[in-house]
Each structure stands twice: as structure tokens, then as C-alpha cells.
Amino acid sequence: MTAISATDLRKTYGDVRALDGMSVEVERGELYGFLGPNGAGKTTTMEVLTGQLRPDSGSAAVLGTDPTEEPVETRARVGILPEQLSPPSFLTPREYFDFVGRVRGLDDDTVAERAETWAERLGYTAKVDTLCADLSRGQQQKVMVTQAFLHEPDAVFIDEPLANLDPIVQERVKRFLVEYAERGNAVLVSTHNVEVAEDICTRVGIVTNGTLVAERSADELGEESLLDVFFEEVESAGSRDTPVLEG
């Protein structure tokens, strides 16, 4: 069953075409990787799908809602982990989760239980009452990962989930994402890290110049390297942001 879909999305900023006919579908139970160079349109697509940005044209649907026409309802039903966004500096993680829980309609006991589970999973239990301003960048990322899953949404949008995390925590997050999708949820991960996409995703969409140029499932790759496919597709499309390999 399709949980996330975008059809012929287009978005321009002046002379720049951020999206140029982007179409993609993500099924329930799927961990879909959005793989592409910087400026390919990955983040813009996710912002449209989560109701943060209105496209010039095209359509989208997320869990039966239209994020363009129903942005508040859409955001209430999904989890969002933006790239490089920090938690509020003037709150502690515990206070931030209490706020997120109230917004999401969770009772205090549920918030406390889930927040504790995440703090233990990601290894920041000793920091839950420290101001977020005083946390390291990696610890702040752990807090942001937690808030995305605190209400256990049916669809999650994640932009570079492993940024600033140490190798042990990276592995824990990757395993959790795989398990979360296997429970019947839809997970869309945006990344420019080929190894991450190849390691955890059930299907990968290669994005460049604001459109989807190729898709590969884990089964379809076989002995084929995702890195080779990536370079072949991106260079063939004439990406505006990726240098051509020589030799």
C-alpha cells in the first residue's frame, strides 16, 4: 500500500529549477533511499511532502492527506528529521520532549517512557536534563532523532540521519530504521552517502537535477555496485552539481 507519493512536482527559485518533474512512491514497509548529489532536489521534495513548501505544480499524498492543501494535518501524522536542525537551545531534552508530546497529543507517562527508551538506545541518559545549548552536535542529533519517532508515526522523513553520530550510534540508528520499516511503516531517507543507502534501504531512487532518474531495489542490484549505478546515472543526466570522473 502506497504511503507516500509525489507526481510531477515542479518548483523554481528564480532561474533555478529545484524540482523538474519529480515523481516517486514509497510503500508501507519500505525503507526508501533518496540518493543524490548536493542540490539534486532531495530536501525540496521532502519539504513539499511534509507540507513545509508549496510546489509550483504537481501533486502529493502522504498517508491519505494532501500536504499542499492540508499541511498541518500531514505534519501531525508524520515524523520529520531535517538536516542540521538543532533542538531549542533554551530547553533540556526532557523539556523538549514534553513539548513535542503535548503537540502530538501524547500523555505524560507515554512521553516519559518513550523518551527514556530512546535516551538509553542512543546513549544520552545522563544529558536529558542538560540545556540543549550545552550539548555536543552529536548529542543534539540524538535528541532530534528521538523527537521524530516519539509519537511512533506511520511515515517518517529523514534527511541525513547519521550526521554527527559516532559509529556505534550510527549502527543502532540504522538497525532501528530497518526494523521500523519492517513493522509496516514507511521511511524515506535522504542522503548523499551511497554506503548508507546500499546498507539499509530496500529500494533506492537516484535523484539529480530535480527529478528521479533511476531506481534500484536491493534484489535488482545483485552484483552491481550502487556506486557505479549512481555515477552512471548522474553523469548520463548531466548533473549540475557532480564532477565527472576521469580515468
Automatic annotation (TrEMBL):
<dbReference type="InterPro" id="IPR003593">
    <property type="entry name" value="AAA+_ATPase"/>
</dbReference>
<comment type="similarity">
    <text>Belongs to the ABC transporter superfamily.</text>
</comment>
<dbReference type="InterPro" id="IPR027417">
    <property type="entry name" value="P-loop_NTPase"/>
</dbReference>
<keyword id="KW-0547">Nucleotide-binding</keyword>
<keyword id="KW-0067">ATP-binding</keyword>
<dbReference type="InterPro" id="IPR003439">
    <property type="entry name" value="ABC_transporter-like_ATP-bd"/>
</dbReference>
<keyword id="KW-0813">Transport</keyword>
<feature type="domain" description="ABC transporter">
    <location>
        <begin position="4"/>
        <end position="234"/>
    </location>
</feature>
<dbReference type="GO" id="GO:0005524">
    <property type="term" value="F:ATP binding"/>
</dbReference>
<protein>
    <submittedName>
        <fullName>ABC transporter ATP-binding protein</fullName>
    </submittedName>
</protein>
<dbReference type="InterPro" id="IPR050763">
    <property type="entry name" value="ABC_transporter_ATP-binding"/>
</dbReference>
<dbReference type="Pfam" id="PF00005">
    <property type="entry name" value="ABC_tran"/>
</dbReference>
